[in-house]
Design brief:
Blueprint: H1 4-23, H2 28-41, H3 47-54, H4 57-75, H5 78-87, H6 93-108, H7 113-131, H8 136-147, H9 158-167, E1 176-177, E2 180-181, H10 183-201, H11 221-235, H12 243-257, H13 262-267, H14 271-290, H15 292-302, H16 308-323, H17 328-346, H18 351-364, H19 373-384, H20 391-417
Antiparallel strand pairs: 1-2
Length: 419
């Protein structure tokens, strides 16, 4: 535990770091790495603290490696082939959008959301042009579906990776854990409810459509690498292989497979996000080590939320609200120890709080057009094609879709994990 003066320094550095990150005036990486540098220069943390305690190298390894795998998988044209085969079987427009959105959700459970949106957008544009139909519901549907699966698998989104490695969860623990339905299973129900809601919202789109089967040449290597990489994540820890090593190995193999595009893979990778996560690990470690996070948890309990059921609801829906404008990675890193401290104050296990917080922050970014990067890209594509994106129209899809998903998951968490 740090001294009172150092606790003040840590809290001040945290506030400035988040303020700069939310302001958009500096790159995210500069904000978090600058904060980490201040903590080192003031002596709050040492180099050893940063290298061996604060930074979660396994998270960074998995994040980098599987983004490389996702790149070569997209270049293999396998997702494009899958989309074509699905659409060739569909006859009504509402089911075309439903199929595109369902495929987007499936792919986004294993791949970077923005990449999936960019991959699915040309298919959506082609279908809407063929039908002379409004492009808006296609791309908004694809965007929100890319974000609704962030807790479906361990590799769906950095927060899922972070939770798994912070708590020792393995990939299969996302589906059955401690003899109960796990985070991924609960998320799957939420996704199904959300897709059903989307189908209801688009129920009047009954125009007939015909998509021909296309001869799309594909390569199989990236698909094999992806499947083997996920399998290695699942079984590697049983043999003492660290998840980060699996991620790095998969990434290096992907670089070799995509060597003709090596420069593009390296240069276009989101290094800003990776370095931001690295710096945030340092800041949050200092917050936790200083006792600030425990103080915050005690304050929440003292404020009057005096039973676990109310606390679960608070964590779920506050996470939804905050993530509509706050990046979910630093929020997750911040809130994991807070959830654990809150659970300890009630004398219960932390899983319900952790799952609820993660589901809320994962889906909360869907609410606004700028709440998630995938939303921004989808709206940008719409504007490039001359389609205006009124916030009110966007909210008519995003709010019922997201609330339905979170509400279903919240109900299951209460029934399964709060008994």
């Amino acid at each position: 535990m740090l001294a009172g003066g150092e606790k003040t320094v840590v809290l001040l550095v945290f506030v400035v770091c988040y303020g700069l990150a939310l302001s958009g005036r500096v790159k995210l990486a500069y904000a978090s790495l600058g904060a980490a540098a201040v903590l080192l220069l003031t002596g709050v943390l040492t180099i050893a603290d940063v290298l061996f305690k604060a930074v979660k190298w396994d998270v960074l390894g998995i994040y980098w490696g599987f983004m490389m795998v996702a790149h070569v998988f997209m270049q293999s044209r396998m997702p494009e082939l899958i989309a074509n085969r699905i659409l060739a079987r569909v006859r009504l427009e509402k089911y075309v959008i439903f199929a595109l959105c369902g495929l987007t959700a499936l792919l986004s459970a294993f791949m970077e959301n923005v990449g999936v949106v960019l991959m699915m957008a040309p298919v959506a544009i082609a279908v809407s042009r063929q039908l002379k139909s409004d492009l808006f519901p296609y791309l908004v549907g694809i965007a929100v579906c890319s974000n609704v699966v962030t807790t479906l698998t361990m590799v769906a989104d950095p927060p899922s990776i972070i939770l798994a490695l912070e708590t020792g969860m393995k990939p299969l623990d996302f589906y059955v854990f401690q003899g109960k339905a796990g985070l991924g299973t609960i998320t799957l129900v939420g996704v199904a409810v959300a897709l059903g809601t989307l189908l209801f919202l688009y129920r009047r789109m009954t125009q007939h459509v015909h998509v021909d089967r296309a001869a799309i040449p594909t390569t199989k290597g990236a698909t094999v690498l992806f499947v083997l990489g996920v399998a290695a994540l699942a079984i590697g820890p049983e043999f003492g292989v660290r998840p980060g090593i699996v991620g790095l190995a998969a990434g290096i193999i992907a670089l070799y497979m995509g060597r003709s595009q090596l420069r593009e893979m390296v240069v276009e990778f989101d290094w800003n996000a990776l370095l931001f996560i690295l710096g945030i690990f340092v800041v949050i470690h200092a917050l936790n080590d200083s006792g600030v996070l425990k103080d915050f948890a005690d304050l929440v309990v003292w404020a009057g939320i005096d039973n676990p059921t109310a606390m679960l609801a608070f964590l779920v829906w506050v996470s939804v609200a905050l993530s509509s404008f706050m990046d979910n990675v630093p929020y997750t890193i911040l809130m994991i120890p807070v959830c654990q401290n809150l659970a300890a104050s009630f004398g219960i296990e932390a899983w319900a709080f952790l799952y609820g917080m993660l589901i809320g922050t994962g889906i909360g970014g869907n609410i606004t057009p700028v709440g998630a990067t995938a939303n921004v890209f989808a709206c940008g594509i719409l504007e490039k094609h001359g389609v205006k994106v009124p916030v009110s129209r966007y909210l008519k899809t995003s709010i019922p879709f997201s609330v339905a998903a979170v509400a279903a998951a919240h109900l299951l968490l209460q029934l399964i994990w709060m008994d």
